[in-house]
Specification:
The protein is mainly alpha-helical. 53% of the residues lie in helices and 10% in strands. It is built from six helices and three strands, in the order αββαααβαα. Helix 1 packs antiparallel against helix 3.
Length: 193
């Protein structure tokens, strides 16, 4: 198969891997800078990360990795459906980030010695920005799969279920036929000739 036919597959896989990294990063990056002396969940904090505020970045990063495996295993219409699902996930991540409900936290508790509120918590766009980049990568991978998924190469027949393997033509070379049979999990000495 020419490299130009494989390129969309590698592009989709790279976008999904990058989306997983971006979501993992979003969970550990700062989402809110808080004033000195703020207590959050019983700890004195200066910043609040994505994993402190929301639970979805890491599971969605794992979903991106699972989508990579599914991209390799599926073919035809199933790949196109996977692409549509990935675009829907991208829209969902975008809504979750831009909704603003992640920032609804009570930061009114002050540590002893910090009675006066020195300032207000400030939202940062570093963590949410990483999540939005992941959403864009999800959408891009989904669009590539929906558009070109049916034309992308798939895993070879030796990785398919036994019922899906087609009878291969014999090449005329007995040695090559024996090796092909072994590669497909058959015992070449017991098959009909």
């Amino acid at each position: 198969m020419p490299d130009s036919a494989k390129r969309p597959l590698w592009i989709a896989l790279a976008a999904l891997a990058s989306a997983a990294l971006a979501l993992w990063g979003a969970s550990s990056l700062t989402w809110v800078d808080v004033p000195a002396g703020t207590v959050f969940h019983g700890e004195l904090r200066e910043e609040i990360s994505g994993s402190d505020l929301v639970t979805w970045p890491v599971p969605l990063a794992l979903l991106a990795l699972a989508a990579m495996a599914a991209t390799l295993a599926l073919r035809g219409v199933a790949r196109r459906v996977l692409g549509i699902v990935l675009v829907a996930v991208a829209v969902w991540v975008t809504v979750l980030v831009l909704d603003g409900s992640a920032y609804d936290v009570d930061l009114s508790t002050r540590a002893p010695g910090y009675d006066a509120m020195p300032g207000e918590p400030t939202k940062t766009w570093l963590g949410p920005g990483a999540a939005l980049v992941a959403a864009a990568l999800y959408a891009f991978a989904g669009a590539v799969l929906a558009w070109r998924g049916h034309r992308m190469p798939r895993m070879g027949a030796k990785y398919s279920a036994p019922g899906e393997q087609k009878e291969r033509r014999r090449s005329g070379n007995p040695d090559a036929d024996l090796w092909n049979a072994l590669s497909e999990g058959e015992d070449p000495t017991t098959r009909d000739r």
